[in-house]
Amino acid sequence: MEITVLKNVLIKNNAIGNDNRSLFNKNKIFVANIISSPGAGKTTLLESTLAYLTSRYRVAVIEGDLYTSRDAKRLQPFNIPIVQINTEGGCHLDARMIHGAVQSLPLDNLDIILIENVGNLVCPASFDLGEDLRILMYAVTEGTDKPQKYANIFAGAEVILVNKVDLADLCHIDLSELVDEVRSVNEKAAIFPISALKQETLVEWQQFFEEKVKAKKNE
Ligand SMILES: Nc1nc2c(ncn2[C@@H]2O[C@H](COP(=O)(O)OP(=O)(O)OP(=O)(O)O)[C@@H](O)[C@H]2O)c(=O)[nH]1
Ligand SMILES: [Mg+2]
User: Fold this and answer.
1) Disulfide engineering: 168 pairs with which of 23, 33, 136, 173, CB 3.0-4.6 Å?
2) Contact 144/179 with Cβ under 8 angstroms?
3) In terms of Cα–Cα distance, which of 210, 215, 193 is closest to 59?
4) To the nearest whole percent, how much of the chain has pLDDT over 70?
5) Which residue range is the domain that position 8 belongs to?
6) Which of the listed residues 34, 37, 42, 44 should we mutate to test ligand 1's pocket, taking the one with most ligand atoms within 8 A of CB?
7) What CA dihedral angle connects 154, 159, 160 and 162, to 10 degrees?
8) Does the beta carbon of 40 sit less than 6 angstroms from any atom of ligand 1?
9) What CATH number did the domain enclosing 197 receive?
10) 42-51 tens-digit pLDDT
11) For residue 196, how far is its CA from the centre of ligand 1 (angstroms)?
């Protein structure tokens, strides 16, 4: 019985996710869903890339958090539309929440929506939000064993940003071993080792992202 209920939830979520995708496609908005465990560096990445992105594109952010608006406040200086979703304890964003959030965004005046999901390495894997790109951020401080332990979320990502590489030596992490572990559950994802605090490590990733945005504009 419980399994049936869960299935129904996911079927409904996927239907709304598809509606979101149609809406984004109609408006040629590129949407990225950024997933990670708590504290891997999602908001730091947004802080480091929004200056560049907003100088070229019309960007909005949807922030997912259990309770606070702290991440949204960190992004206020960029002066862009930001919607904060508080899940009140819920461990992921779902398509219905995104559908609600976009009602207050100027959809005919946007190129990119960046969604920061709730920090969690399990639940967000199951919920399609209607995004074009699913980005998993993973900090080296989390160890080399997690790709296989949390295989679902690693397998479902099109991009894996291996963050905090500046701390790799301190944490006794061998980056090539970590990449091999990621590859053991996801052969195709584009993998970028970065440090969200250091602009110079973000260049390749930003180029990749920008190409995706442009490709959607020209579809
Ligand atoms: N050394 C180092 N610290 C980082 C890096 N990226 C983020 N941090 C730090 O990690 C901490 C958490 O970063 P956040 O950006 O708040 O992480 P988050 O994923 O948004 O966290 P939640 O939204 O709570 O899930 C902060 O103290 C950041 O300064 C990095 O590349 N290197
Ligand atoms: Mg955050």
Assistant:
1) 173
2) no
3) 210
4) 97
5) 2-217
6) 44
7) 180
8) yes
9) 3.40.50.300
10) 999 999 999 9
11) 8
